[in-house]
Amino acid sequence: MDILSLFVIVPVLVILALVFSKGLKQARLIAMIGGIIQLGMAINLIFAYTRERAVNDSIMLFTRDLTWFEQLNIHYSIGVDGISVALITLTSIVLLAGVFISWKIEDLPKEFFVSLIVLSTGVYGFFISIDLFTMFVFYEIAVIPMYLLIGIWGTGPKEYSAMKLTLMLMGASAVLMVGILGIYFNSNADGGALTFNILEIAKVNIPYEAQKLFFPLTFIGFAVLGALFPFHTWSPDGHASAPTAVSMLHAGVLMKLGGYGIFRIAMFLLPQGALTWSWFFIILSATGVIYGAFAALRQTDLKYINAYASVSHLGMVSFALLMLNKTAWNGAILQSLSHGFMTALFFALIGMIYGRTHTRDITKLGGLLKVIPFISAIYVITGLALLGLPGFSGFVAEMNIFMGAFLHDDMFHRILTIVSVSAIVVTAVYVLRVVGIMLMGPVKNTAYLKLPAVTWYEKAGILLLLIPIVGIGVAPLWLSNMIMQSLEPFIRGVL
Fold this sequence. Notes:
Blueprint: H1 6-19, H2 23-53, E1 61-69, E2 74-80, H3 82-101, H4 109-128, H5 132-143, H6 145-153, H7 158-184, H8 198-201, H9 208-223, H10 234-241, H11 244-254, H12 256-269, H13 271-298, H14 302-321, H15 326-357, H16 368-371, H17 373-386, H18 393-405, H19 411-439, H20 456-474, H21 477-494
Antiparallel strand pairs: 1-2
């Protein structure tokens, strides 16, 4: 069995085990063991990839190709580079943390964990695929469970939020499918056979007119999932209604498919289209960065604050990708990873606070540092990481993004870079505002004086997410080097 297919097979086996489990204890034990195994597989993949990369300079490693549908040349083609490996590891960590945070779920626990792992299976499959059609199938597998997870286990206007999310993402999928088919039917421009294989298409000179037409379709198809302004409105509502673990996987992992798809497909396969359209999408991305920050500043609901913060920080990912240089791209990947860990940790902490106080309204909270000091201290640390304090992953990512953006010396890029940089100041304001209102001062409600202590499984979920945030911030070079090495063939195609 190849090392990559296990990331699809093991989750399926965990799902089957969950189907035959009985009761909450069995379901969460199976989900935890499955999550630990997948994290172990991801760590093993890092070491295996490092060893193989030392002797193999192929674009993708551990490749495997099986014919799926011969008439249309559709294959189960898989392979990874340093970027895929990093995102697979992110997925495994957030999934296991989500299992721990959902430890006490009582409403249909078996079905909840099954849906959660189906989502992660689609994400794993997406990150290992190098066939466009197979990648699209896994993309849909990852998106569809969100409707059930929010519609069944959510809170508030959950049916509305689930339907809005599903309709917008399905609409984006339709646009994306047109873009993928456009690439496919132009993949024989040099006289070869039609193919969905990304590495084979990259060798073809797709006509400029086709690139100019299909790049915006492919970009938007993926960017909607990445909460690109003005297509972001599904995300805050979805976050607000989703249960905690679902918000963690939604923001921490699922939304990364958008940036990864833009990079792996739109940028790599349609480079001339990227150069033509970059100015337009740079404006939208910069708008999203500053808009998301100011929108977060206006919110009082903790989930909405974090949701709009995600819109802002994911806007930086697309902004960096559109800079079309190696430094900014390195920053974009690091930002995807950093944001994944930070936003998942934020949602975990928000879930813990809500579970104890039964409110997410910061105006009704106060003095929590006195009654739940561990959760409050981690919230402050995560907030400092979010605003880009040195020593945390956010600083490393944002420095690469803005250094790469400033490599463009024209007025257009410089002005929009300054606009995006200013979002850091706004981020500091809304983070410190929440800390001041919610954590500092006297306890506003006497009922909060005896809140439950943090449990072992909550601490396990927190530490799983906090360690990478600090680790990347303190020692980023090994990860940055792995990413930079993988960027070489992609940047050559654009320049």
